[in-house]
């Protein structure tokens, strides 16, 4: 048995080919907030949402320490929104973003219950799921 239990995720790191394109996608398509900060004398970028953030690493210039194998496009992330999933779907369609799963809203299971979800890919090919919990 573990001596402790984790409570939540603080941040996830995305390794990116093009940080400005990644910032544009997540701020314009998902409503995240871009933050610039300095760590160990290096300017860094993060995308904030809720009580979490995505730290962005430039491919080939990752901040240390880093994961054993870093590769742009290897993430599969699910984000929860309070906005109706139909509005997300419509916004993405209206703005020319390809919606996976035939453009449809699909049923999934999340950490605390059933979800209605739509899927797309970010500029690096990461799988992005945006969901509503079903009551």
From TrEMBL:
Gene3D superfamilies per record: 2,3-Dihydroxybiphenyl 1,2-Dioxygenase, domain 1
Annotated VOC domain residues: 8-133
SUPFAM superfamilies (alphabetical): Glyoxalase/Bleomycin resistance protein/Dihydroxybiphenyl dioxygenase
Family of the protein in this entry: Belongs to the glyoxalase I family.
The protein, known as: VOC domain-containing protein
Organism the protein comes from: Zymoseptoria tritici ST99CH_1A5
Lineage: Eukaryota, Fungi, Dikarya, Ascomycota, Pezizomycotina
């Amino acid at each position: 048995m573990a001596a402790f239990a984790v409570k939540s995720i603080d941040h996830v790191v995305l390794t990116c080919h093009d940080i400005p394109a990644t910032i544009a996608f997540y701020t314009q398509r998902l409503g995240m907030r871009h933050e610039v900060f300095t760590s160990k004398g290096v300017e860094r970028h993060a995308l904030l949402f809720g009580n979490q953030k995505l730290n962005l690493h430039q491919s080939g210039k990752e901040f240390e320490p880093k994961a054993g194998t870093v590769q742009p496009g290897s993430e599969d992330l699910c984000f929860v929104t309070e906005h109706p999933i139909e509005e997300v779907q419509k916004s993405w369609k209206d703005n020319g973003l390809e919606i996976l799963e035939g453009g449809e809203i699909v049923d999934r299971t999340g950490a605390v219950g059933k979800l209605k979800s739509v899927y797309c890919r970010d500029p690096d090919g990461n799988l992005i799921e945006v969901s509503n919990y079903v009551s």
